[in-house]
């Protein structure tokens, strides 16, 4: 099964995930979430699979710079538009493995994918 990793080229967590997956012999396609990803097509599916709580990076610099109104959207149906407009709000990496979607690089995600 091939994997697609959505992240940022300069994100240390994304680099670590990519290296671990490749070391485990997995075929991984890297997609820059800011420059190459079709977020309008991807974000709704990611939200359905992982949920807004998992997908919104509320510890990011982007999050801290949002207005209170925009932060409130993270709790509503408007979260999709917020993430599409602000790709760096998406917790990284987002890894698609077949029909499964994994968000972040935790021990459990690493254990499941490597």
Summarize the structure in words.
The chain has 114 residues and is of the alpha+beta class. It has a single domain (3-113), classed as Glutaredoxin. It contains seven helices and four strands. It has helices at 12-23, 39-50, 52-55, 61-65, 68-73, 79-85, 107-113; strands spanning 3-7, 28-32, 94-97, 100-103. The chain has a four-stranded mixed beta sheet. Helix 1 links the parallel strand 1 and strand 2. The radius of gyration is 14 Å and the shape is globular.
Summarize this entry quickly.
By secondary structure, this protein is an alpha+beta fold.
The figure for the number of domains is: 1
Overall SS class: alpha+beta
CATH first level: which class? Alpha Beta
**SSE string:** EHEHHHHHEEH
| Beta content | 15-25%
- Any idea of the CATH topology? Glutaredoxin
What features would you highlight for this structure?
about 110 residues; alpha+beta; four-stranded mixed beta sheet; 7 helices; 4 strands; about 15% strand; globular
Write the layout of secondary structure elements.
Elements: E1 3-7, H1 12-23, E2 28-32, H2 39-50, H3 52-55, H4 61-65, H5 68-73, H6 79-85, E3 94-97, E4 100-103, H7 107-113
Parallel strand pairs: 1-2
Antiparallel strand pairs: 1-3, 3-4
